[in-house]
Amino acid sequence: MENEYGVESYLHKYSKDVMKLWLPQYKKFFGLEAGKLTMMAEYPIVKSDIIDSSLKSWTMVDFGSGLGKIPSYEEVKQFTGRAPVAIADLAVISGDIPVFFIEIRHRNPLSVKKVATLFSEFPKINMIEIRARWIMNQIKPPKKMRFRLFLGSVDEKVE
To answer: Average pLDDT in the 84-93 region?
Structure first.
């Protein structure tokens, strides 16, 4: 999220970097014990005739800049004819399938409106909200994570 200066805070940016470092230790949590698992930042979530990026990774689509690149907001609009419904801070990708989207909460939690919009368009989406300050307060990857889990229309807090 950007602040009044148009830039992302260090807390938000480095929380994403730390989550990427933790990923190998949490494969089992994501239900993925084997196979290639990657985490991609600033992942646009959109559904069009060309792609449903909640079901297929952008890295498998050549939208003019080549395979393996995540498009910007403007590139998504140009390529699909639609603006992204959301841009996830992180996407956990198994092979070429997004399995979880992670929102790093710095100032404000995911709004009810944003969650409702996401689930109305993407009913099978899995989303986690985790606090940036909690991530940065850890001294090593924690054995337990604190986050809010959104599955379908269910919203629950898990510790």
So the answer is: 92
Tally of helices (H runs) and strands (E runs) in the chain: 4, 6
Q: Which CATH architecture has domain 10-158?
A: Alpha-Beta Complex (3.90)
Sign of CA dihedral 55, 103, 127, 144: positive
Whether pTM > 0.85 for this model: the answer is no
Beta bridge partners of 155: 150
Distance CA 137, CA 139 (A): 7
Q: In the chain, where are the structural domains located?
A: 10-158
Interatomic CA distance for residues 43 and 109, integer angstroms? 18
User: Whole-angstrom Cα distance, residue 62 to residue 88?
Assistant: 20
Q: What angle do CA 50, 117, 51 make, to 5 degrees?
A: 10
